[in-house]
Amino acid sequence: MKQVVILISGRGSNMEAIARAGIPGVRIAAVISNRPDATGLEVARQLGIETRVLDHKGFDTREAFDAKLAELIDSFEPDLLVLAGYMRILGEAFVRRFEGRMLNIHPSLLPAFTGLHTHRRAIEAGVKVAGATVHFVTAELDVGPIVIQAVVPVLPDDDEAALAARVVVQEHRIYPQAVRWFVEGRLQLTDGRVHLLDARTASSDWT
Ligand code: GAR
Question: I want to staple 109 with a disulfide (CB 3.0 to 4.6 A). Which of 4, 63, 64, 131 is the partner?
Answer without folding.
Answer: 131
